[in-house]
Design brief:
CATH architecture of the largest domain in chain A: 3-Layer(aba) Sandwich
Radius of gyration of chain B: 21 Å
Number of helices of chain A: 19
CATH topology of the largest domain in chain A: Rossmann fold
Radius of gyration of chain A: 24 Å
Distance between the termini of chain A: 27 Å
Strand content of chain B: under 5%
Shape of chain B: globular
Strand order of the largest sheet of chain B: 1-4
Number of domains of chain A: 3
Helix content of chain B: over 70%
Order of helices and strands of chain B: HHHHHHHEHHEEHHHHEHHH
Largest sheet of chain A: 6 strands, mixed
Number of strands of chain B: 4
Helix content of chain A: 25-40%
Shape of chain A: globular
Oligomer: heterodimer
CATH superfamily of the largest domain in chain A: P-loop containing nucleotide triphosphate hydrolases
């Protein structure tokens, strides 16, 4: 139906896709897997008309085709279901579903018809979301279903799912699988992008593996086990990705007792020790980010906090920075870097006072710091006067790290440290964090990638619904155990559900 | 392959930065040529000096506006603030009486402090009160305008002492080595302002806050203080402009400074500062203020278009400036 033929894509000097070919067939679910930064998102965006390839082309039923825009792709029946929730919070579910394609009666919109149609579509998806409720009031999972419903409202022949289960519980994931199987039955070509390998195993017919923008293999799903997929994705021994663990476990540097962040976190208590890497796992929306933003003073919080044994309460992030705590936001582009400023301005922003001589900026000192950062963090740039926007995700993350490390923190809290970075950078970031810990810095890693937490951390605390659901360490650090704590449901249960639902 | 691609964005980027920074000056140069072609008298020293001198009020105020806009804010109150500060300064002079240098110096101090205080009020309402700058300054615009109306009882506040007028006169009409005092004043203000905006941590903070307030907050930038200070700087600039304004007419009326806020914003935008913040161009702003005055002057001298249409032409220039800016930006993407 839709085919990519030797597609390449470069952003400036960065080549993110290199000669990728895949073919989507009617009535088949084709999974694309790969680490963050492997090029999955770029491939999807090209297939759905959001981006144009720099080389190669698309074929529609065998004939070359060019999608000038996402609308044009949609007219051919190619729809992309975004990973990010792109809905208008203040509009109702029905209004969102029909946004930009309202059903009219004369000059007026026909709300009754749209509500009716919305109820039908949502019922088809097997959800009970009320058509007239404001999207603002829905859970993340419900919003995801609204987004799927909106996409499926247009006549579709090719449906592309971008990490659709990132915010879903296992039960909701199973509901989604029912929808996908129904699409397959009616002859839709489905592209399913995920890095959750058991899901890929359960739902897809064919798997394509990408690594660093290159095509690794395409094979029938039945020929691959999740462990094979992982090996193909990473392209090296998984064990080498993570550095050796240091001894960890020194004196307690930060003790939280009953921390609450109104609306997000209830009664969270934990201890952080010198030289350890403490992981925080859980589903998106479990309150991990909010807990630490509360602790460092980026949002209001209540509860007891002790730093080196002394009670503290931060109402301003500047105070916690001064006390040696640094928080690196998961939102690198929105809260980490000034995308339209150059490397130098970004690097020194958090520690600007250190680069002023007599009240005037000392640019040579800043340049020197940038030299240091570029070599210490291996930031790969052709020129120094690039804007942060022009860097790859991995280089942005390194620049962000370099920026916050200028504060010389004793406690580093890093939220989703490797989101959207390539595997090579991942390894560098892991070894950097391990080194920090070995030097006696206390490190908190918040991550939704369970493998990352298991490979990197000494202990992992798992949050669920704004509370700390439990702690795992040592041999207990398994994906199954973390998923159980994060959802309250054993993943084994999901797998049997998947097995049972599969046509014999 | 990736080696071969990299030089292209480099060249395009250099082009963008040069063009965006240069465009107000190029526009000014083009206007000067146009003016000369239409009327040879335009290029005379006396005419040009006159034009640049008259642009001083807006230029000085707009330097402050550059800070406010670069940090992502907006100040609509500067016009009525000018009238209010000018009125208060004259009332102070009249109340003190006499024609002493010390009195004049004190009156100048009053104008500067009052301007800064008005700016501080705006700033605190934006930061502590968490009200949109548009709304805050729309409110204070009305308040300041009403206050001057009240103080002047609907009429005119005039400097009573002729000796004082004579003493104060050189501050607008005087010159140093042939350069009018107001021109020296706005060059000095712009120099100090560019030092602050481009060379100090505070200037860096202003740009960071305007570029992305979240990033600034997560980086530990004292956002409230930075934003408040931009409004204080704006108020100080209004005070400075008033120092040059009062000796010119020796009076303040309820129509003093009418629509100056729009002219100041126009000068900033023509000068290449993005209205959404994150970029401030002090010298561009100066060029913008001069452009606005030159356009009026050309129209008066040329008879091409009725001078009653000055406002329309200035408005068209603002819109064209935005279109040019955007096309330069798009070319670079």
């Amino acid at each position: 139906m839709l085919q990519a033929d030797q597609i390449s894509k470069s952003f400036g000097p960065v080549k993110v896709l290199d000669g990728i070919s895949i073919a989507l067939e009617p009535g088949r679910v084709h999974a694309v897997i790969g680490e963050n930064g492997a090029g999955k998102s770029t491939l999807m965006r090209i297939l759905s008309g959001y981006l144009e390839p720099s080389g190669g082309g698309l074929l529609w039923e065998g004939a070359p085709i060019r999608f000038a825009s996402a609308f044009e792709a949609e007219r051919h029946g190619v729809v992309l279901i975004h990973q990010e929730i792109l809905l208008a919070d203040d509009l109702s579910v029905a209004q969102n579903l029909f946004l930009g394609r309202e059903i009219r009666r004369g000059l007026m919109v026909d709300d009754a018809a749209m509500d009716r149609r919305t109820r039908d579509v949502l019922a088809e998806l097997g959800t009970a979301i009320p058509a007239d409720s404001e999207v603002r009031r829905l859970s993340l999972a419900d919003r995801q279903f609204v987004q799927i419903a909106r996409a499926l409202l247009v006549p579709n022949k090719v449906v592309i799912f971008d990490e659709p289960t990132a915010v879903l519980t296992p039960v909701e994931t199973e509901k989604l699988f029912v929808v996908i199987r129904r699409l397959r039955e009616v002859g839709v070509a489905v592209l399913y992008v995920s890095h959750r390998l058991p899901e890929v195993k359960a739902i897809s017919d064919t798997v394509t593996v990408l690594r660093d923008g290159r095509h690794v293999t395409t094979a029938p799903t039945s020929d691959l086990d999740p462990i094979d997929m992982a090996r193909l994705m990473v392209g090296r021994d998984m064990a080498k990705l993570y550095p050796a663990r240091s001894a960890g476990g020194g004196a307690v540097v930060l003790a939280a007792e009953g921390i609450s962040v109104p609306g997000y976190v209830e009664d969270a208590s934990f201890k952080l020790r010198r030289g350890e890497i403490l992981g925080f796992g859980g589903l998106v929306g479990a309150g991990r980010t909010e807990l630490f933003e509360g602790i460092v003073g980026l949002r209001p919080s209540r509860g007891g906090l002790e730093l080196h044994g002394k009670p503290v309460h931060f109402t301003d992030v500047r105070a916690s920075m001064k006390a040696g705590i640094t928080y690196l936001s998961e939102d690198r582009k929105g809260k980490g870097l000034l995308l339209d400023e150059e490397l130098r301005e970004n690097l020194t922003l958090a520690a600007l006072d250190r680069f002023a001589r007599g009240g005037v900026m000392d640019v040579p000192a800043e340049e020197e710091a940038l030299d240091g950062a570029i070599s210490r963090f291996d930031i790969r740039v052709g020129r120094r006067n690039l804007l942060a926007r022009q860097l790859s995700g991995g280089n942005q993350q390194k620049l962000f790290l370099a920026k916050m490390m200028l504060l010389e923190p004793r406690i580093v809290i890093i939220d989703e440290p490797t989101r959207g970075v390539d595997i090579g950078t991942k390894q560098q970031i892991y070894s950097f964090l391990a080194n920090l810990a070995a030097q006696g810095v206390a490190v908190v890693v918040i991550s939704s990638e369970m493998q990352e937490l298991i490979g990197l951390c000494h202990r992992i605390l798992v949050m669920r619904g704004g509370r700390i659901a439990g702690e795992v360490s040592g041999d207990e650090m398994t994906e199954d155990e973390i998923v159980f704590l994060a959802t309250g449901v054993h993943e084994i249960g999901v797998e049997t559900a998947v097995e049972a639902a599969r046509p014999a | 392959m990736s080696q071969a691609v990299s030089p292209t964005p480099a060249r395009r980027l250099g082009w963008r930065f040069d063009m965006r920074a240069l465009s107000p000056f190029l526009a000014l140069a083009a206007l000067l040529v146009l003016g000369t072609v239409l009327n040879p008298d335009f290029m005379s020293v006396s005419n040009l000096t006159n034009v640049v001198t008259r642009s001083a009020f807006i230029a000085i105020i707009a330097v402050g506006t550059t800070f406010v806009i670069a940090s992502g804010g907006l100040d609509l109150s500067v016009g009525s603030m000018s009238a209010f500060v000018a009125g208060m300064m004259i009332l102070f002079l009249n109340a003190m009486g006499g024609a002493e240098w010390t009195t004049l110096a004190m009156a100048m101090g009053v104008a500067l402090v009052l301007g800064a205080a008005c700016g501080l009020a705006n700033g605190l309402m934006v930061t502590v009160g968490r009200i949109e700058p548009f709304i805050v300054t729309l409110g204070t615009m009305g308040i300041f305008r009403a206050l001057i109306m009240y103080l002047a009882a609907g009429g005119t506040i005039t400097m009573a002492s002729y000796e004082m007028r004579d003493l104060y006169r050189p501050f607008y009409f005087g010159d140093v080595l042939g350069i009018p005092v107001p021109v020296i004043a706005f060059l000095a203000v712009a120099s100090v302002a560019s030092l602050i905006l481009y060379k100090t941590p505070f200037g860096r903070h202003v740009v960071a806050v305007g570029s992305n307030q979240d990033v600034a907050r997560y980086s530990g930038v004292p956002i409230a203080r930075v934003i408040t200070l931009t409004y204080v700087i704006q108020g100080l600039c209004v005070g400075l402009a008033v120092l040059a304004y009062v000796p010119r007419l020796g009076s303040a009326t309820p129509t003093t400074g009418l629509l100056w806020e729009l002219q100041a914003i126009a000068a900033v935008v023509i000068g290449g500062t993005a209205l959404r913040g994150g970029r401030g161009r002090i010298w561009g702003t100066i060029a913008g203020a001069i452009i606005l005055e030159v356009v009026g002057n050309i129209m008066v001298l040329s008879n091409l278009v009725s001078e009653y249409l000055i406002g329309a032409v200035q408005g068209a220039i603002i819109i064209i400036a935005m279109l040019v800016q955007r096309s330069l930006q798009q070319r670079s993407q």
